[in-house]
Fold:
Amino acid sequence: MNKINYQKEMESILKEVDKNAAEKGVRPRLALHVCCAPCSSWCLTVLKDHFDIDCVYYNPNISPEKEFEKRLGELERFTEEFPHEDRIRVIRGTYDNDAFNELIKGMEDLPEGGERCFACYRMRLEYTVKYALEHDCKFFTTTLSLSPYKNSQVLNEIGADLSKKYGIPYLYSDFKKKNGYKESIELSKEYGLYRQNYCGCVFSLRHDLIGLH
Structure:
């Protein structure tokens, strides 16, 4: 099986988006699931000239709650300082860590980066696509593929599955390509962003994974 280059897939979709926007005189709205400000920094840089963007901050996996709030605050600060001509807004998702814990019940001892994480991807993306349906967004996607710790193949497969289920196009992506992760580090320095050293759930914290997720 040939491995799909999701970066090229995204570039192809963006060309069509720009063509349609030029013909209709209006940009489509994108529901972008956002995990944190550092990851959003590069993703928004790539996407802001193609869409009006709703940054859907839905991350019930994050623990403790004060960490959830800290990351949300950094995202709000970043989008206030980042130039975007009022085309980007932050949407606070519900915080329900109990729902996350119920979702991954029985998977607590699985290795980091496996099926427990994939269930978490789906949970967050499904919330985002439902938001997209309710708010007239024409596409949905996530910042998660920027992280070298996230499985972009699985993320895009989940996105494609949800797209088929709900009838909204998924914007394929692999934001770590073309030095995206490195660019996010530079943008984090430029804006003085807090860079967490674990994905968010108690399991990633226990594994002592170092670096931005």
